[in-house]
C-alpha cells in the first residue's frame, strides 16, 4: 500500500523509521498515516503531504529518539552497583585472601608508580624549551683523545663561524664555564660574607631565547647584556640577601673581587634540565672568551644553535665536515702547530648537531652538569614492571585457586539463567574494583616507599607524582587496565564451569589448571631471583671497588680544595699544617687522584711515539703523603736540587708504552710538542696506581714538579692524618687557613668520599635493586602463602586420610613443601642465564671487575627457598599436625 | 522517598498547624501532573477502549476546542506510561492507516487514583475555608 503513496510520503516514513525506536514505530506511523488520509480527503494531496512532513518532523525529539536507550543504561548502572555489592561481600567473606590480593597488588602498583615516575622524569629532560625542534647543541669529535668519540664542548670560533657563514642558522648562543669562584657580598653594616661558589657559567645575552628559565626579578632581554652582569638563582639570592630584593645589588666575584651587578633572579629552576646554574654572568664578564674568540682548541664553551624552520640538521652537519680544512687548519698555522700532525691517528674533525632533549640520556658528555644513562632509565622502568607483574600473578593465581569456592556460585547463577557474558562481566568488575582499591592504597604506600628510599640512599628523588597532572588522571586508567588484565584469565576460567558438574560437586579439586598457575609461580620466582642476583653482583662489585688496593693510601686523607687561593701563602700553610699534632704529612699538588684527569700529548727524545699523558704537578712531599711507591729512580727534591723543577716521574704504564723498562726510563727526555720549554728528564718510575675510576684501565701518567712552567694553576693541599679528634684537627687547620687569607672560606673534603662520588650512580642502582628485589620477594611470598594456605585447606581431608594410613608428620611436610620447592628450583634455573647475561654486561662497563661466581646463583636460590620455607612454615606445620579425626568426622 | 517523608513527619511534629501538612506537600509534589499531562490522562479515561493518538487529538479539539499536535500527545502518553498511570497495547490489524495497528492506551488503577486525588486537592482549600 505504501508503494502507491507519493515519494514524499515514503521518504517521510523512512525517516520516521530511521530515528524512531522499534517498539514505538508502528503506533506512531499508523497515527500519522491516518491523519494524512484524513487531510487528503479534506484538504487535498498537497496540504496533506506538507502536514505529514511537519508532523513527522515534530516527532524527531529526544524523548522519542532516546526513549528505550536511556532506560537500558539505567539497568546497566544498577548492575554495576550490584557487582560492587557482590565484590564487597566477597571481600568481607574471605578477608585473608582479599588482604593478600589487595595489599600485594598495591605494593606492586606502588613500586611500578615509583619507577615509572623516575623513568618519566628521566625522559622529560629539556622537553619544555622554546622552539625545541630546531635547537641543537653542537658536538664535535673528541680531539683530545686518540680513542675518538665525541664531546659537547667546542672552541669559541665555531659560534662566530656558524652565525656569519651559514644562512640556515637563525641564532647561536654559547655558554662558558669560568670555573668556581669565591663570591663576596658586603652587607650594609660593613661585614663581608664570603662563599665558595660553584655552577658559575657565562652565557651570551640571548640565553633566555634558548632556554626556558623564568626570572622572578629582572628583564630576560637585557639581563645578560654588557659587562659585569649576573643572573643568580633564587637559592643564592636567599643565601646572600635573605628576603630582600636582589636586583641591582653588587657582589664581588673571584680573587680580584670584581664588582658585578645582579640583573636577574631566576624562579626555582627546573630539575629536569641538563644544567642548573647558581650564577650566570654575561659573556664579556669573562674576558678569556674574548681572548680566545679565534680559537678552535680552547674547547671551553658549549655552543647551542637554532636553525631556521625547515632546515635539515643532517644537511648542515654534512656542510660542516669541511670546516677542519677551511678554517681550523689556517688557525693552527697561525699558532704554529701543524694541523695534520695534530690530527694524525685521530678521527676526522667533525661536528654533530644534538637535539637538546637528547643531551641528558643520549650523550655521554655534558660540560655544564651530569648526564643520565638511558639504560638505567629503562632498567628502572623494567624493574617496576616486573614487580607489578609479580603482584598481578598473585591476583590471577589466587582467583583461579579459589575457583571451587566460586564454582558453586557460578553454577547456581547459570542454572538460574545467567548468561556467561554477564558472569564474565561480574568477575571482571570484581577484579577492576579490587585493583581500584589497591590503587587507592598504593598512593600512600608509594609515598612511604619514597621516604624509605630517600632515607636509605640519602639522596633526594627529584620528582613527584603530584607535579604532573597527566599522571593523576592516568592513575585510575592504570588501575582499570591492570584489573582488567589480571581478571581476564580468572573470569573466563571461573565462568567456564558447567553448572551440572559443579552442582554435582565434580570440580572439587580446585587445583585444576595448575599448569598455568605453576608456570606463573615459576615466572614470579624467576624475576625475584634474577633481581636478587643483580643485587648481589652489584654489591660485590661495589665492595670490590672499595676494597681494591688502589696503589696508594686513600684512608685518612683530608684534601683542602682551591688551595690556589692561598697564593704565596700556600707553602707556609703546608708547613704550618704539617706541624700540627695529628698530621703525619702535608703536601701541595695540582690534584689528588680522584677521577679528574688532564691529558696532553707528549713524546720522547729519539722516539716517534706520541703518548696521551696525564700530568699532575706535585711537591716534594706528595709521595710521602699519599703513599705512592717508586720502583726506580727517585722523586722530586726541589729543596736540594733546583733542576728537578723540570723533572718527570712516569708511571709503569707510561714507561712501558714508551718502550722502556723502569730502569731504562731513568734519564730519558720527555718532550712536550707545541711548547717551547726545554726537554724534561725522567727521574723516577712509580708503581701503577688507579688514578681514574675502575671503569678505566690504568693510563699513562706523569708527575712533574709543582714549580714547573707547565700548564695547571689549580692547587690542593693533601693532608695525611692520624688522630682521634678529627673535628679538632679540622678546626685548627681552618684556623691556620683563616690566618693566611682574608674573607675566603676554606673548602675541604675527604679523599675517600670524593672517590665514592665517582660510583654514585652505581651505588644508587645497587640500592634500588636491593629495595625492589626485596619488595618483589615479599610480594611473591605473599602470593605463595596464599596458595599454600589454599592448598592445605583443600587437601585437609587428603592429609587426614594419609595420616590415618600411617604417614608421619615429616612425610606430610615434605609433600606440602616439595611442590613449590620444585617451582623455585625451576625459577632459579631460568634466572641463572638471564641474570648472568645482564650482570656480566653491566660489569663489562668496568675495566676492573669481579667475576660472577656460581655461588651467587646458588646463594640467591637458597636464600629465596629458605625465605619461602619460613613463610609457609606455620601453615604447613599446622596442616601436618592436624588431628585426622577432626577433619574426617564430617563425612 | 523515605527521607523526605521522615523529614516532613518531623516538621509536622514540631510545627503543628492544622492548615499546613508537610506530608501532603511532599506527596502532592510527587503526584501532581502538569496541566497537559492531566488533560491527556483525562481524555484517555474518557475515550476508554478507543484511546489512541489521533482519537485523543480529536477528542481534545472537540471537547475544549484546543488544537494539539500529535507528537506532543504521543510523548505525553509515553511519559504517563513511564510513570505508570496508563498502559498501552497494540490493537488489531486495520484497513485504513496503511495497515498499521493502533497503539491503544488505558488508564491504570494508579491513574484513576491520581485523577481522584487531584480532584480532591483542587477542592480542599475551599473545604477548609468552609469548615472554619
Average pLDDT figure of chain A: 85
Structural class of chain B: mainly alpha
Name the pair of protein chains with the most residues at their interface, and give those residue counts.
Answer: A-B, 22 and 23 residues
How confident overall, as mean pLDDT of chain B?
Answer: 75
Given the C-alpha coordinates, what overall shape of chain B results? globular
Total of helices of chain A? 31
Low-confidence stretches of chain A: 70-74
Q: Report the radius of gyration of chain B as a whole number of Å.
A: 19 Å
Q: Could you describe the 3D structure shown?
A:
- The complex is a heterodimer of chains A (891) and B (132).
- Chain A has 891 residues and is an alpha+beta fold.
- Chain A has 31 helices and 24 strands.
- In chain A, the strands form three sheets. In chain A, strands 1, 2, 3, 4, 5, 6, 7, 8, 9, 10, 11, 12 and 13 form a 13-stranded mixed sheet that branches.
- In chain A, helix 29 packs antiparallel against helix 30 (854-880).
- Mean pLDDT of chain A is 85; it is low at 70-74.
- Chain B is 64% helix and 8% strand.
- Chain B contains six helices and two strands, in the order H-H-H-H-H-E-E-H.
- Chain B has helices spanning 2-14, 22-31, 35-47, 53-64, 70-83, 109-131; strands at 86-90, 103-107.
- The model of chain B is unreliable at 17-30 (pLDDT under 50).
- Chains A and B meet through helix 2 and helix 3 of A and helix 4 and helix 5 of B.
